Amino acid sequence: MSRKKWTTEEDDFLRKNFVLSNGSLAKNLKVDRRAIRRRYAALNIDRPFGRDSLEIARFSIIREKCKDLVPEKWFQYPALRREALKNEVVYYWTGEDCKKCRKPTIRYSASGKCKVCQDSQNKERNQRPEVKESNRLYAKKIRKEKPELLKKQRLQRYANDDKRQLLLNSAREWRRRNPEYFKNHNRNYAIKNPLDRKLIKDNRRARKINANVILNEEEKKRIKKLIKDMKTINKKEGRIAAHIDHLLPLSKGGLHEPSNLQVISTKANLFWKDKIKCCPYPKPKKWNEPKCEIFF
Ligand SMILES: [Zn+2]
Hints:
Layout: H1 8-16, H2 22-29, H3 33-43, H4 51-65, H5 81-86, E1 91-92, E2 107-108, H6 115-126, H7 129-145, H8 147-159, H9 161-177, H10 179-192, H11 194-208, H12 217-237, E3 242-246, E4 261-265, H13 266-272
Antiparallel strand pairs: 1-2, 3-4
Helix pairs in contact: 2-3, 10-11, 11-12
Bound molecules: zinc ion.
Protein name: HNH nuclease domain-containing protein
């Protein structure tokens, strides 16, 4: 076998494309791989060893060229799909343009497909009614099975302040556009959760005169218990026999919080109204024999 004679052009090609794999170089120059390897040794060129390091070297050159043209975040993604799968990164970025849409793009490590192409394909697919239905069922199932995941997602979504404001605004906009739905939803919620309804209503009343505090879950639970007690008494009596009363009336500087709330009889509440309770009810004939019958 006669040795191949290398032209300077071929040598230049080898020097320029030292990051290509032996296979593709051999294909380009129409020689076998061993000849390529031997020629590189003869030219005294240090090449990265192994398939992975060759590819990484090749991609890093392409990626460097893309600087300022692509989002900076892309440089954090691994260049190889194998690497991305190993580290459980969702995307990888080789730096090469997509052959289909001819745009610089990152790729999904799960499918190896271009993000732009895959996303548009998914969007199209999700418009189909049968897919829509199955997606809806799947979401419902996940919501039921993994409520903590949903909670986590929601927290993540609302963690960023700017994003939170955007979401709140869009929700407000949506409510403005669908007043009927909103009304029905509120009504149904109130019927299903009478305790919540009363809690929200009272809190709103207090907020109007700046007598509210921001309640935590524990405090809400305590207020709801009071409301429940009141409702049980009313149900037992068959009439409105009990009220929830502020120990120090809101108009006298009391706050709407569990420590300032009590369940008392309607009669007693109407007797005191918004007066400060300085005497027991019913008012005793003699002041020094107090008689307190506010409970049942
Ligand atoms: Zn594409």
